[in-house]
């Protein structure tokens, strides 16, 4: 079976406009979803599901968020960690408020709590996005870096956010939806997966709509975009809002589902950078790229820790850490200079080649 | 909007006594002219005469320090470019200003942005309202693609296209807005003869078939004399001639300016 468009004539613009216009892609995605929803929870061990797959999915969601802002709308941000923190702490505050108001039974539904936490993050994102009308590139990066430090500082400093817990670390409430508690790693993974799949689809839809075209237009040439009718401030702030919403939800999931605790340290500047690297390595301006980048960055350390010993090459733990830094460094420079569209573009080029293989003419 | 209907031949846009300076540089000084509905109006003049600046004033990108612009019977205060776009003014640029990372199709689709209404939520859900709207506009854009004969490069990222085709795509993006007034800044610059002929044909067809009023800047005198109804001549920011092509061609000031300007 060849990977081909030929013979699959599209009789309408509707078909041409589909997310996956090629049959083989649709089959591929269907298999991927089957494996993700059924195969992994059934057959994979708790460690793989809980310690690898769940964090990978949540970080991919944050990377989708940052990619909307940086890859699609062209606004650089180093505040991803902070926006995740806003999501995590908002979810926590919302949960405690609703318990205080109505007792444990009358709490705000968990899903609503997480979504509302995203909305709070979106509002904060818009606030820190306002300078983007005036400043670009490097200076905007510095402004978002300021947001990162300011929010982290605020969360540590103001006791109200942690309900005055002396250690600053607080336990997240149990994951209960409609009376059912998501308890095992597999259940928590499925909970996360559902969120991530739905939101990734929403992101994909947004970026192929006129809203996404507005973001790309502002990214590629802001003056021309304004002259054909896009309002620069509104377009940029929408990108900040949507991006921060995604990061906020990711933050809430990270705290409630993955860690089970809410703490500012989980959302420091390192988090911001690692998500930026996911976007760069995976591919700017690609939703798929966010997943590839997240997979790469989560899997590489595991790979380095396990594979060399397997082939009898014993490198120390510190060597692994050095190697990790070196590989990331080289890859980031490579992708920034040679292929800004990252691994996702290499994948597309591969597919284009495949489309004509084995008869290139 | 204007109280009265504007019929072909009426003044669509009137520029009165506008002046524009950048510090000590006077880009436009005391120029008045008008554009009538349905005509092809050309602006010519040597390099640095202020032609592009004039278009920038008309679509709200520059704000003249002096003078007034009346569009569709309404005097305009300083407006933002997107407001001008919303009132039916579209344009192309002297240096192609396409969105390099997007395909031909997407670039032209951006021209429809002011007509697309689906919000964040419906766009995220896609299925239903947003999809219907997208397809409706896609159909319109496909007609433009057919009209400009660029079917083959529909999905190509515009950064990979040769210059002549990029100019054509840019025209398509402007047309997608269904403008009432179309401003073209040197649409044929850097093209070979054949490409120029195609572009002339497109401009005349747009003017004929859709009744779009066109104001264009062009250096190629042959083209200007051929396709325009009236021509205005700028030199050093001032107006030195205005009228039908024949009048302008024989205007002594114009001849002097062009000979002096090294053309
Ligand atoms: N943004 C700006 N800042 C400073 N000076 C400007 C600016 N825009 C235009 N000018 C100046 O105004 C004058 C007129 O420029 P304009 O671009 O309108 O000329 P033009 O007639 O379009 O010339 P060309 O045929 O070379 O395109 C020039 O002297 C130019 O340097
Ligand atoms: Mg010019």
From TrEMBL, chain A:
**Pfam families reported for this sequence:** BPD_transp_2 (PF02653)
Which keywords, in A-to-Z order, does the entry hold?
Answer: Cell membrane, Membrane, Transmembrane, Transmembrane helix
Membrane topology type: Multi-pass membrane protein
Q: Where in the cell is it found?
A: Cell membrane
Q: Which spans are transmembrane here?
A: 27-44, 50-69, 81-104, 110-130, 137-156, 189-207, 237-257, 277-303, 315-338
Q: Say yes or no: keyword Transmembrane present.
A: yes
- InterPro entries cross-referenced by the UniProt entry: ABC_transp_permease, LivM-like
Which protein is depicted? Branched-chain amino acid ABC transporter permease
Q: Which organism is it from?
A: Sneathiella chinensis
TrEMBL record, chain B:
Outline the extent of the ABC transporter domain: 13-261
Q: Which InterPro entries match?
A: AAA+_ATPase (IPR003593), ABC_AA/LPS_Transport (IPR051120), ABC_transporter-like_ATP-bd (IPR003439), BCA_ABC_TP_C (IPR032823), P-loop_NTPase (IPR027417)
Q: Which SUPFAM superfamilies match?
A: P-loop containing nucleoside triphosphate hydrolases
Asked if the record carries the keyword Signal, the reply is no
Known Pfam families for this protein?
A: ABC_tran, BCA_ABC_TP_C
Question: GO molecular-function annotation terms?
Answer: ATP binding
Q: Per UniProt, which keywords does this protein have?
A: ATP-binding, Nucleotide-binding, Transport
Put simply, this protein is called ABC transporter ATP-binding protein
């Amino acid at each position: 079976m060849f990977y081909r468009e030929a013979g699959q004539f599209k009789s309408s613009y509707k078909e041409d406009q589909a997310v996956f216009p090629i049959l083989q892609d649709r089959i591929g995605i269907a298999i991927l979803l089957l494996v993700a929803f059924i195969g992994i929870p059934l057959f994979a061990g708790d460690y793989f599901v809980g310690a690898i797959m769940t964090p990978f999915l949540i970080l991919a969601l944050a990377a989708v968020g940052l990619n909307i802002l940086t890859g699609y709308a062209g606004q650089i941000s180093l505040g991803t960690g902070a926006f995740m923190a806003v999501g995590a702490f908002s979810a926590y505050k919302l949960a405690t408020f609703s318990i205080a108001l109505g007792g444990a039974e009358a709490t705000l539904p968990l899903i609503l709590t997480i979504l509302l936490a995203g909305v709070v993050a979106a509002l904060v994102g818009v606030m820190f996005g306002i300078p983007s009308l005036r400043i670009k590139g490097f200076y905007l990066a510095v402004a978002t870096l300021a947001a990162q430090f300011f929010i982290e500082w605020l969360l540590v400093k103001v006791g109200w956010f942690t309900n005055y817990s002396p250690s600053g670390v607080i336990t997240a409430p149990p994951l209960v939806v409609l009376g059912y508690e998501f308890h095992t790693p597999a259940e928590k993974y499925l909970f996360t997966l559902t969120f991530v799949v739905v939101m990734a689809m929403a992101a994909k839809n947004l970026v192929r709509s006129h809203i996404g075209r507005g973001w790309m237009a502002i990214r590629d040439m802001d003056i021309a975009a304004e002259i054909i009718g896009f309002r620069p401030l509104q377009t940029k702030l929408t990108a900040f809002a949507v991006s921060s919403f995604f990061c906020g939800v990711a933050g809430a999931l990270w705290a409630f589902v993955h860690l089970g605790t809410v703490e500012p340290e989980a959302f420091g500047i390192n988090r911001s950078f690692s998500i930026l690297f996911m976007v760069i390595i995976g591919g700017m301006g690609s939703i798929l790229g966010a997943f590839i980048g997240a997979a790469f960055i989560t899997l590489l350390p595991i790979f380095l820790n396990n594979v060399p010993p397997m082939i009898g090459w014993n490198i120390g733990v510190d060597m692994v850490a050095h190697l990790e830094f070196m590989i990331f460094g080289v890859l980031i420079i490579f992708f920034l200079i040679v292929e800004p569209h990252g691994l996702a573009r290499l994948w597309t080029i591969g597919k284009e080649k495949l489309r004509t293989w084995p008869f290139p003419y | 909007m204007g109280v009265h209907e504007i019929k072909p031949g009426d003044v669509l846009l009137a520029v009165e006594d506008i002046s524009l300076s950048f510090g000590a540089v006077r880009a436009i000084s005391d120029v008045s002219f008008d554009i009538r509905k349905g005509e092809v109006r050309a602006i010519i003049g040597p390099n640095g005469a202020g032609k592009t600046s004039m278009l920038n004033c008309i679509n709200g990108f520059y704000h003249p320090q002096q003078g007034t612009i009346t569009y569709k019977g309404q005097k305009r205060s300083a407006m933002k470019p997107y407001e001008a776009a919303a009132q039916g003014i579209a344009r192309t640029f002297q240096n192609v200003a396409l969105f390099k990372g997007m395909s031909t199709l997407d670039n032209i689709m951006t021209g429809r942005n002011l007509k697309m209404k689906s919000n964040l939520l419906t766009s995220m859900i896609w299925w239903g309202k947003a999809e219907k709207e997208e397809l409706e506009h896609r159909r319109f854009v496909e007609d433009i693609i057919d009209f400009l004969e660029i079917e083959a490069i529909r999905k190509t990222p515009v950064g990979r296209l040769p210059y002549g085709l990029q100019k054509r795509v840019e025209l398509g993006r402007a047309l997608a807005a269904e403008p009432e007034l179309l401003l073209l800044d040197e649409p044929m610059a850097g093209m070979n003869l054949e490409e120029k002929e195609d572009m002339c044909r497109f401009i005349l067809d747009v003017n004929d078939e859709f009744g779009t009023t066109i104001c264009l800047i062009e250096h190629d005198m042959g083209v200007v004399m051929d396709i325009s109804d009236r021509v205005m001549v700028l030199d050093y920011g001032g107006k030195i001639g205005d009228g039908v092509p024949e009048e302008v061609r024989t205007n002594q000031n114009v001849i002097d300016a062009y000979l002096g300007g090294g053309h």
